[in-house]
Design brief:
Elements: H1 8-13, E1 15-16, H2 18-28, E2 35-38, E3 46-47, E4 51-52, E5 62-63, E6 67-70, H3 72-75, E7 84-92, E8 106-110, E9 122-125, E10 154-157, E11 167-168, E12 179-181, H4 189-197, E13 202-206, E14 210-216, E15 220-221, E16 232-233, H5 236-246, E17 250-257, H6 261-271, E18 277-281, H7 291-296, H8 299-302, E19 308-314, E20 316-317, E21 321-327, E22 332-337, H9 341-360, E23 369-374, E24 380-381, E25 387-395, E26 400-403, H10 412-416, E27 420-424, E28 430-431, E29 436-441
Parallel strand pairs: 1-19, 7-8, 14-17, 14-18, 15-16, 18-22, 20-25, 23-26
Antiparallel strand pairs: 2-13, 3-13, 4-12, 5-11, 6-8, 6-9, 7-10, 19-21, 21-22, 23-29, 24-28, 25-26, 25-27, 27-29
Helix pairs in contact: 2-9, 5-9
C-alpha cells in the first residue's frame, strides 16, 4: 500500500479526485499467485499459460449423421425409382474399437460420432434409405437392442453422395500442436469444454479472489426479521456481495456489525483467514458513531510494516468519504465504502470492481463505457469540482440515456431500475437535454 503508515489526518489534508483514488488502489493491488485447479474449480478464473493441443480434434474421421457408411461408386445414380441395393455387413457405433471393412456393394450401419470404417468413403443419412425395411424412405433407425437384425440384410439407398459427404475429418476442429487457449483467457463453459476435449484435467490459473463484505450499523437487521422502531434492513451487504460475485469473485457476506469499534476490529481480524480483499460499508464519515474510522484509523499507527487504512475525502458525488489500505499480516487490501446504499454501490463499481478484476489478473478491469445523448425533461445540475455519477437507463439502439430517480444517495428503488451510470465531469455544472455524455454500462 503506502510506503509509510498513513493516518486519518493525512487523508483529511487532501481532497482526492476519483482518478487519483482509483490509481492508488490499482497501483497497490497485485494479481493473485497462480495455482493448478481441476477444470470445474477453474471456472471464471484467468488462464496464466498458453494451452497447446496434444491430440487433434476430432482424433479420427467420424460420421456426422446416423446412416450408412458406403463407397461412392456403389451409390452413383441412385434414386427412389432405382435405388442402390447394398449388403449391410454390421454396425459401427460410437466408441467401438474394431470396425468392419466396407467392400464393393457393401454398407455398414453407422451412428453419429462413430469412426468411419475402412473402405468407406462417405455416409448417407438414414433418411436417404429404406432403413433395411424394403419399403420407402424412413425417418430413423430402429434401436439395436430391439432390432439387432438391422445390422444385416440389405439396405436401399435412394440418393447419391459425394466423397467425404457427412464425414467430420480428423483435425477439422483443431490440429495437434495448435494453440487451444491463450494466457489471459477467462475460463467459461466453452473454454472448459475445449480443455476437457483435449484431455486436460487441470489447468494453471489465477484463482477467483475471495472477497469478504460486511456492513456496519446498529440499526441494521437481517431481511426476513421484523423491523423495530428505528431499524432498517441491511441491503448494502447483499448488494455488494452480489456485485462481487458478478465481478468474478468468491464472495462471503458477513452479517451487519453493530456500532462498536472493538467488535468490528475483531470481526475483521476473524475474516482475514478467508479474504483476499475486505469491503466494509458504512461508518466512514464524520459522525460520532462512524465505527469503521474509529476501529481502523489507528491501525497504521500500530503496524510497523507499512500497512494501515487511510480515510479520504473524494471530489465525487455520491461517495465522498472513502477508506483504503491494507490490514493484517498478509497486507490484505481493505476498501471502506460509505453507508448510503447508492453511494455504496457506485463506490463499488468505480473502485472495488476494478480491484477485484486486478486481483484476477485481467488486463481490462473497467466496465465498458459509451457515449450517449442525454434524454431529459430539463437540465441536470452538478456540483462544481466533483465528478457526479447519476443513475440512468441506456438505450443502445437510440444511443441515448435517461436519468432514473434523483441525486439522493438513499434512493435504492431508482438504482434497481438503472443499467448505467451517467458521468458528469468535475468542470461541468449543468447538462442540457441533448448533451453528449459518457455512460458506464452496468449490464
Amino acid at each position: 500500500m503506502s510506503s509509510s503508515a498513513p493516518t486519518e489526518v493525512t487523508g483529511q489534508d487532501h481532497v482526492w479526485s476519483v482518478s487519483e483514488h482509483l490509481d492508488d488502489i490499482l497501483g497497490s493491488v497485485r494479481p493473485l499467485e497462480p495455482i493448478e485447479l481441476q477444470l470445474l474449480d477453474a471456472q471464471g478464473c484467468v488462464l496464466v499459460e498458453d494451452v497447446t493441443v496434444p491430440v487433434s480434434l476430432p482424433p479420427f474421421d467420424n460420421s456426422s449423421m446416423d446412416g450408412y457408411a458406403v463407397r461412392v461408386a456403389d451409390i452413383t445414380g441412385a434414386s427412389e425409382e432405382f435405388p442402390a441395393v447394398l449388403t449391410v455387413i454390421g454396425d459401427v457405433a460410437a466408441g467401438q474399437g474394431e470396425q468392419p471393412e466396407v467392400g464393393a456393394g457393401q454398407a455398414a450401419r453407422i451412428m453419429t460420432g462413430a469412426p468411419l470404417p475402412p473402405g468407406a468413403e462417405a455416409v448417407v443419412p438414414v433418411e436417404w434409405t429404406d432403413g433395411g425395411l424394403g419399403e420407402g424412405p424412413v425417418s430413423g433407425m430402429r434401436a439395436h437392442s430391439t432390432a439387432p437384425d438391422g445390422a444385416s440384410g440389405e439396405v436401399r439407398v435412394h440418393r447419391p453422395a459425394e466423397a467425404r459427404a457427412h464425414v467430420r475429418a480428423r483435425g477439422s476442429d483443431v490440429q495437434a500442436g495448435d494453440r487451444a487457449l491463450s494466457a489471459g483467457t477467462v475460463l467459461g463453459a466453452p473454454q472448459i469444454a475445449l480443455l476437457a476435449a483435449i484431455g486436460r484435467g487441470t489447468v494453471k490459473v489465477r484463482p477467483r479472489p475471495r472477497v469478504v463484505v460486511m456492513s456496519t450499523g446498529s440499526e441494521l437487521i437481517q431481511p426476513g426479521e421484523e423491523l423495530a422502531k428505528g431499524q432498517i434492513y441491511d441491503s448494502n451487504s447483499f448488494a455488494l456481495t452480489a456485485a462481487a460475485r458478478d465481478a468474478g469473485a468468491i464472495a462471503y457476506r458477513v452479517g451487519a456489525v453493530a456500532d462498536d469499534a472493538e467488535t468490528l476490529r475483531s470481526t475483521i481480524e476473524d475474516q482475514l483467514i478467508r479474504a483476499d480483499l475486505i469491503v466494509t460499508t458504512g461508518g466512514v464519515s464524520v459522525g460520532a458513531y462512524d465505527v469503521v474510522k474509529e476501529a481502523l484509523s489507528s491501525v497504521g499507527d500500530e503496524d510497523e510494516d507499512g500497512s494501515g487504512i487511510e480515510f479520504r475525502k473524494l471530489a465525487m458525488q455520491p461517495g465522498k468519504p472513502q477508506g483504503f489500505g491494507s490490514i493484517g499480516p498478509d497486507h490484505t487490501p481493505l476498501l471502506a465504502l460509505p453507508g448510503n446504499p447508492v453511494s455504496s454501490y457506485v463506490s463499488f463499481e468505480i473502485f472495488v470492481r476494478p480491484a477485484v478484476r486486478a486481483l484476477m489478473g485481467l488486463p481490462d478491469v473497467h466496465r465498458p463505457t459509451a457515449r450517449a445523448t442525454l434524454s431529459a425533461d430539463k437540465a441536470l445540475t452538478s456540483p462544481s469540482g466533483k465528478r457526479q455519477f447519476l443513475r440512468g437507463r441506456y438505450d443502445a439502439d437510440a444511443g441515448s440515456v435517461r436519468p432514473v430517480g434523483g441525486a439522493g444517495s438513499h434512493l435504492v428503488a431508482a438504482l434497481a431500475h438503472a443499467d448505467a451510470l451517467i458521468v458528469v465531469p468535475e468542470d461541468t455544472t449543468s447538462l442540457e437535454p441533448g448533451a453528449d455524455v459518457e455512460v458506464v454500462l452496468l449490464g
